[in-house]
Amino acid sequence: MILNVAIVGSGFGGLGAAIRLKREGIGNIAIFERADDLGGTWRDNTYPGCRCDVASNLYSFSFAPNPKWSNTYSYQPEIWSYLQDVATKNDLRPLIHFNHDVTDISYDRTDRLWRITTNQGDFQARSVILAAGGLAEPRMPDIEGLASFKGPIMHTAKWDASVDLTGKRVGIIGTGASAVQTVPQIAPTVGSLEVFQRTPSWILPHLGHDVTQRSMRLFSIAPLLQKFVRAFGYWQRELMVLGFVKDPSRMTKGETMSREHLERQVPDPELRDRMTPNYRLGCKRVLISNDYYPTFSRENVTLVTEAIKRVEPQGIRTVDDVLHEFDVIITATGFYVTDNPIGTKVHGAKGEQLAEAFRGDMANYKGTMFPNFPNLFMLGGPNTALGHSSIIFMHESQLNYIVKTIKVALLRDARIEPTVDAARTWTQGLQEKLPGTVWGTGCSSWYLNEQGKNTTIWPDFTFKFRKETRHFEPKDHEISV
Ligand code: N01
Question: Is the CATH number of domain 2-38+92-137+336-480 3.50.50.60?
Fold first, then answer.
C-alpha cells in the first residue's frame, strides 16, 4: 500500500502533524517511531530536574490547551504525559509504527514516490513529513580517552536511573541548559560533584511557580482566560525580538539582571568572576534558574574551569595536570543540531543529501521544503528554531503551509517542490539578516554550523513566520502532475 503521508517521529512535531492531517480529512497516514513509546525529546530526557524553559501555556498545542499544568514551567514527566494524552484523545496510537528505525528515505524518480527503509521493512509514500527533532541525537564530547573511563558515563539525554549516584564522586561536563537543571538536583545525593565549565552561561531568575487548584479550575471552566494568559506570554516574548534581532545592544539590561542574580546568589567574588560570561547575552541560549548558582555554596560542589586534557580510567585530567578522580561521569554536552544524522539519511531526486541544507550548501524554502525533494517537508527545518519563544508556535505555522501543500498535491496527484529561485531568495534573505543579530555578536553556540553560519535560528518576530507560512503560493513552486 502506498501511504499518502509518512511522518517520521512521534514527538510534538509528528503528533501535531498527524492531528492536523486528520482534521483536514487526509487519511492513509503513518508515523514511524524508532522507540517503543511516543514523545520524542520529552520521552528521552529523563535526567533529574528536566523541565521546559518556556511557560507551559505557550509550550503546548494551541488546539489542545491543558488547564491542569501543575507548574507554570512544567517538568518533563508532565509534558510527556500531556503528549500521551493528546495522542490518546486524537486516536493517534493506531497510526504509529513503534520500534521502526528509519534508515533511509530516498525519492524514486521512476515511480515518483518516497521509499522509506526501516529496520522492519520498507514503505512507500506520496509525501513525507520529517519530524525527527532538532535535539534528538545526543552529542558525546570529543575528548581523548573518554572510552577508557572505568566507571559509568552517561549523557543527560540518555540518563540511566539504575546508576546509583548516592555518595559517589561525580564529574559533569558542560554548563548549558541540561547541566543547569541537573546539577542542583543531584548535588545533595552525590558524595562530591565537580562541574567542568568551558564557557559560562548567562542565567536569569526563574519565574516558574506552582499553579493553584483554583487556577486549574478557572482554566477548566473558562478556557478563554487560559487563552488570554497564553497570548500575554506570547507577546511578552515577542518583545524580546527587539533585543535579539533588531538591536543587540538592548541586551545589556538582561546582562545587568543576570549579573545581579549572580551577585545575590554567589558570595565568593573569585567564583563569580569565573561564572561571568564575556559575550553578549542571547548569543548562546539564555538560561533560567534559581537553584544553580546556590549549589556552588555547598561543600561538596566545585566548579572546574581548567580545560579538560583527557579522560583516563580513574577520571578527568585537566591541562594543569591535575587528575580529578570519579566514580561516574555525566556529559551534559548537547546534541547534533546542524549536523543532525537524519539529514544524511534523506536523498532527493538527484541523490543529494538533505544534510546539505544545514551545512548551508542547499537553499530551503521557508525552512520547510527543498528544491529536488518533491512533497517532502521538514518540521524544525533550517532557521526555524527560536531563542526566545515556543518552537510549537513555529511547528504549527509550518503545518499551515504543509497541510495546504499536501492537499494540493493529493487533489492533483502532483509532485510539488519549491522553485530554486524562491528557495534562494528565502535563504539568502535570512543569511543577510543574521550577522546583525545577537547570534552574530561572536560566541560559539549550537546555532552555528561548522562554517560558522547560523542555519538554525529564525531571526525575526514569530508572527512574521506565521504570516509567511499562512498560504501555499503556487508561483513559488514547481507542480508536476
Ligand atoms: O546542551 P548545550 P544542553 N568539553 O549544547 C559543553 C534544549 N534544552 O543539553 O558552551 C567541555 O547547550 C558546552 O560548552 P561550550 C535547549 O534548547 C532545553 O545543555 O560549548 N565542555 C556547554 O556548556 C538547549 O539550548 C531545556 O563551551 C563541553 C555544554 O557542554 C539545548 O537543549 C533543557 C564539550 C553543552 O550545552 C541544549 O542544551 C535542556 C567539551 N568537549 C535542554 N563539549 C529546557 O529547559 C560540549 N561542552 C527547554
Answer: yes
Residue with cell 564575556: 278
Could you tell me the distance, in angstroms and rounded to a whole number, from the CA of residue 335 to the centre of ligand 1?
8
d(CA 35, CA 42): 12
Check if CATH label 2.170.270.10 holds for domain 146-201+239-331: no
pLDDT given at position 259: 98
Nearest CA among 428, 422, 424, 433 for reference residue 472: 422
Query: Is the CB of residue 59 below 6 angstroms from any atom belonging to ligand 1?
Result: no
pLDDT of residue 340: 86
Q: Which residues of the chain have pLDDT under 50?
A: none
Among 59, 78, 284, 285, the mutation site with the greatest number of ligand 1 atoms within 8 A of its Cβ is 285
Question: 56 in ligand 1 pocket by Cβ < 6 Å?
Answer: no
- The ligand 1 atom nearest the CA atom of 135: 32
Give pLDDT, residue 1.
86
140 CA to centre of ligand 1 in angstroms? 11
Nearest one of 301, 318, 300, 299 to 309, comparing CA atoms: 318
174 lines ligand 1 (CB under 6 A): yes
Q: What would the DSSP string read from start to end of 312-358?
A: ETTEEEETTS-EEE-SEEEE---B--TT-THHHHEE-TTS-BTTHHH
Do domains 2-38+92-137+336-480 and 146-201+239-331 share one topology? The answer is yes
* Domain map (residue ranges) of the chain: 2-38+92-137+336-480, 146-201+239-331
Summarised one tens digit per residue, pLDDT across range 290-330 is 999 999 999 999 999 999 999 999 999 999 999 999 999 99
